[in-house]
Write a structure and sequence with these properties.
This is Squalene monooxygenase. About 60% of the residues lie in helices and about 0% in strands. It is an all-alpha fold and about 230 residues long.
């Protein structure tokens, strides 16, 4: 690891930080950051409500954990605002089941994007995966909606899972277009087909783990319409 940091990473570090970076590497004690993904699995418990990484984790690549946590706080605040009596844990728990669906637009968008980007940019010898990575950079460099759209998804400003899916496959189609122009060949067509297949294999399992109904059809979840408990 020390050799990799000195030979591969150090040349990319700004000159002002280079000496301090090398010094830190030579001191050792290089720490790695473990990561894991954990789709939200609601376990309604009277008197308790899980939030943050205890309830839902996504890959840290996009740094979206705090965005999801703060969004969850806002959702919970809005649900609790009309209440004055918190003594009836059972009825309060039934009412707060809507929290798990109302949080989905922001949480599932950021979770899916984090997982998809991790798989796209993880090391792979597959040529189709390499083309997908390059297509991501070129797509963002187009500017306009092609950059503001993904950034809005990353930041939680556009909590629409459908918009995420459209941008993700727009990147894949853009990558296929790069392969086929100006002159397609059987090899390039085959890589393009694998690119689309690979993109589908990346995003659809993540969406399935997040919950298709909760992500795209939250209005069909009965818990969303539960009214606050009536005080005696």
């Amino acid at each position: 690891m020390a050799n990799y940091l000195k030979t591969m990473v150090a040349p990319q570090v700004p000159p002002e930080l280079h000496e301090a970076f090398i010094s830190a590497v030579e001191r050792g004690n290089i720490r790695t950051m473990p990561n894991r993904s954990m789709p939200a699995d609601p376990q309604p418990t009277p008197g308790a409500l899980l939030m943050g990484d205890a309830f839902n984790m996504r890959h840290p690549l996009t740094g979206g954990g705090m965005t999801v946590a703060l969004s969850d706080i806002v959702v919970l605040r809005n649900l609790l605002k009309p209440l004055h009596d918190f003594n009836d844990a059972a009825s309060l728990g039934r009412y707060l089941e809507s929290f798990y669906t109302l949080r989905k637009p922001v949480a599932s968008t950021i979770n899916t994007l984090a997982g998809a980007l991790y798989k796209v940019f993880s090391s792979s010898p597959d040529q189709a995966r390499k083309e997908m990575r390059q297509a991501c950079f070129d797509y963002l460099s187009l500017g306009g909606v092609f950059s503001t759209g993904p950034v809005a998804l990353l930041s939680g400003l556009n909590p629409r899972p459908l918009s995420l899916v459209l941008h993700f496959f727009a990147v894949a189609i853009y990558g296929v277009g790069r392969l086929l122009l100006p002159f397609p060949s059987p090899k390039r067509m085959w890589i393009g087909a694998r690119l689309i297949s690979g993109a589908s294999g990346i995003i659809f399992p993540i969406i399935k783990a997040e919950g298709v109904r909760q992500m795209f059809f939250p209005a069909t979840i009965p818990a969303v319409y539960r009214a606050p408990p009536v005080e005696d």
